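Dock coenzyme A; give full complex structure.
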Amino acid sequence: MPAGEFTDFTDFTDFTVKPTLTGEKVVLRPFDVVADLPALSEALRDPEAVRLTGSTPLPPDDDASLRAWYGSRDAQPDRLDLAVVDRASGGCVGEAVLNEWDERNRGCSFRILLGPAGRDRGLGTEAVRLTVGYGFERLGLHRISLEVYAFNARARRAYEKVGFVAEGVLRDALRDGDGWVDATVMSILAPEWAGHRGRPPA
Ligand SMILES: CC(C)(COP(=O)(O)OP(=O)(O)OC[C@H]1O[C@@H](n2cnc3c(N)ncnc32)[C@H](O)[C@@H]1OP(=O)(O)O)[C@@H](O)C(=O)NCCC(=O)NCCS
């Protein structure tokens, strides 16, 4: 769809539809719990990913709760959770998520997590672009936002490459060892997406 036609696009779908989004390097698709769980478990427990996302480490050997979580993603009517599949290997390397849907204001939060096998090859940037594009062009969102910690320059760069704009700093938002780390709030708006479709001018 040419960017100029975007504002006329009214045939929006809803969050009960769980799409497959195909890019050059990744495919985003609903979870296949049996096939994807080992990779998701590894990615979610990866110490670097735990630190960079400010997550609470998962208890070891608790794959039952992970299985229940990923097995229930397709039934969620107000969020979109997709597996990120590396087209080179065919395997799941992480997840990309639109959540915290604000229906009245057509807003969502975005999060992404790739395990070590999926990082630093452009997969993350493409997965962000595919998910955000779906959010604007198919879900009719107006605003997609996220928070990124100051020590996560790679993630910030990926978001900026897709057109996210920094809009403020949450000071000392994360306890990191003995220190504190700021979080930057970033967002992208539908009119911005319509103008560049995830490839803003450098
Ligand atoms: C963040 C994440 C999605 C990025 O995906 P990725 O596939 O690893 O990153 P990409 O290869 O697409 O590109 C990242 C960009 O950052 C750049 N980059 C990498 N490390 C960097 C660093 N330390 N400082 C600045 N830029 C960096 C890359 O060069 C690339 O930019 P370029 O294409 O202009 O060269 C992925 O690394 C990830 O999931 N990490 C762990 C969890 C996480 O941090 N989630 C986000 C929480 S906000």
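Observed: The radius of gyration is 17 Å.
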